[in-house]
Design brief:
The protein has 231 residues and is α+β, with helices and mostly antiparallel strands. The protein is built from six helices and 13 strands. A five-stranded mixed sheet has the order 9-8-7-12-13. A two-stranded antiparallel sheet has the order 1-2. The radius of gyration is 18 Å and the shape is globular. It starts with a helix and ends with a helix.
């Protein structure tokens, strides 16, 4: 559910977009008991024909990207190879939802900062202002000293806004709101195959708590798959 604060921070067009991003592409609701603990997959399914078998579903994956983090280092999908990560969108001068969002995401980071299998990726939606030094300062003020664990990343607007859609959230320029940008407070949980496995309202502590519950489930699922593959 979208929080009242979340609604106030978004124009109607962006709220409508964000409201469509709450349903998984497939659900574990009716799954057998032995798979009930698996997280669902989120996103659109692309239909691809299989020879002699009719159309087959292909689960949506996050597209390839190239970003630059607060240390000036290039990061891509391969940066997160073999890891799971949590992602969001923000900007350093945001006067509305960003401080609350980052406070909530910091809770998640602090809970899992000792687990190298869990990474974080925050995208600025204001690359003109949020230079590498600004991002570095922003991260340090949050207490993040290890950029390899939590990347604060920049790229041109087209790249960032496209990724926002891919992560099932919304971000856009909007001169009618404070700060000049409108965006949702969505956190997305992504698995090592670049599938979105959870979408959460970062303005709602109960949903952030759910994210912290889902991360161990996803890690357990990944470890089980590794053991099965090694047999």
């Amino acid at each position: 559910m979208i929080s009242s604060a979340f609604r106030r921070a978004l124009p109607m067009s962006l709220l409508a977009l964000a409201s469509t991003f709450v349903l998984p592409a497939c659900s574990s609701k009716n799954a057998p008991a032995e798979t009930a603990s698996r997280l669902p997959f989120y996103g659109d399914r692309a239909m691809q024909p299989a020879p002699m078998a009719g159309p087959a579903d292909t689960i949506f994956t996050v597209p390839a990207f190239t970003l630059t983090n607060q240390e000036g280092k290039t990061i891509t999908n391969d940066t997160f190879k073999g890891k799971i990560y949590v992602t969001d969108f923000f900007f350093a001068t945001c006067p509305s939802i960003c401080p609350k969002m980052q406070s909530e995401l910091l809770r998640v980071y602090e809970k899992f900062q000792g687990d190298p299998r869990v990474l974080f990726l925050s995208h600025t939606i204001d690359p003109a202002h949020d230079s590498i030094p600004v991002l570095r300062d922003y991260a340090e003020r949050l207490g993040i000293k290890d950029a390899s664990r939590w990347h604060f990343a920049t790229a041109p607007h087209d790249t960032i806004f496209g990724l926002a859609r891919a992560y099932m959230t919304g971000a856009q320029k909007d001169s009618t709101v404070k700060g000049g940008y409108a965006h949702s407070g969505t956190f997305a949980l992504v698995d090592p195959q670049h599938h979105i496995r959870g979408v959460y309202d970062g303005m709602e502590p109960t949903q952030v708590n759910k994210l912290m519950q889902d991360i161990p489930l996803l890690l357990k699922e990944i470890e089980a798959e590794k053991q099965t593959a090694s047999r």
